[in-house]
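Hey, I'm writing a tutorial for new members on how sequence and structure tokens pair up, and I'd like a real worked example in the thread rather than a made-up one. If someone can provide the structure for the chain below, I'll link this post from the tutorial.
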Amino acid sequence: MVREDKLAFRFDCGATWLNLLATRGRTFSRSPVERLATPERFAEWLARCELSPVQPPGEDDLRQAWTLRETLRALALATVDEHPPPARAVADLAAFLTRYDDPIRLGADGRLRREPPATAVHALARVARQAVDHLTGSDRLALKVCQEDDCRGVFIDPPGRRRWCPSPSCASRGRVRAHRARRSASGSHEDQPPAP
């Protein structure tokens, strides 16, 4: 089995909003992994996403990040599973985006840049808008869900061939389980008497 740092941030899901979902690992297990456990970790995640706000995040911002993350997760899973989106999640996301308008102001100092968000919640509004664009357009068709029941991480898979999220441990666990199932199935046929 592949060993990985459970608390390491994931930036391999294909979009910033999907990487936000990955800040909680093994979401559907008995022991989920919270990678955004403190405002400092949240600030680190925002910095790595080039979304550092002018005002550093506090506890309230962290709670807002958790809430938005789970709202987006519900919408993403419904989209991939081709189910109607949960009405509560739609209403919560719409209210959040209405409350936190973040006007676009561009600059160019070597490359095109957007002014930093004023607060961490304004940074989250940028992430939420990316999610809305993704979930409401044709890009939604490239979304996949990890087949590991305790993970169900959402990621982009344009060719549509992946079975697991980019986490090495999910793929490793899935392959081991599939190998054992194949071995068990082939072994059970050997023990049966030949058909008459």
